[in-house]
Fold this sequence. Notes:
The protein is mainly α and 203 residues long. The chain has helices spanning 3-14, 22-28, 47-57, 71-82, 90-93, 99-104, 119-132, 144-154, 156-165, 172-176, 191-202, and strands at 60-62, 68-70. Helix content is 51%, strand content 3%.
Amino acid sequence: MNIWKHCLLSQHKFGGQPGDFLPVHRFLDSSKLFCYHPRHRLLLHHTVGIEWAIELLGDVLTTSDNRQVLVRDVAAAHCQEDLLGRVPTLAEWLPGPAPELLAALPIASPDELPATLTPALRQLLLRPYLRTGQVAALLLTCSTFGMYLAEQLLGLAAAEELLRWQPAPVPVAQLLAHITLRHPWQYRPDPRALAWLQQQEQE
């Protein structure tokens, strides 16, 4: 589902105009810039991605008809529309023991993060691990996608700091290639959302 369809669904659910919701949907689907495959959703379509959307865009957005809507609710609806009505945790996306993925990660343990990193950057890099307890979750932040997140959430200086530690970051698509989508919710949109969109096209 493209971001404009998500915007139309948000207007239907929350009021306002479709463009009011564009920043939320653009951020959640920015992962497509790194991996144009349903696996891209592993990067932001979960509760940690919702946390990051709130940090980037604030708690509340105001629609063009002056309604206040929680960014959390818009982001959660985006996940539901793409994932058979679910808002999964990051842990639900991750495979069990995945030797090939773990071998491809640039670090084998969070302890390998340099102690010299600024606290804000260190917190950003560690969050996927802290939310899941799985080293595999570091594929989000110890990769080219982590560079993007650092720039978006903390600014260019943080991305440059990360680049000094990882001068040749691992492409996140290379890491995602080790992920197998095992559950229908990981690659099937909500049929109710699709039915509503189809009805609008027919009117």
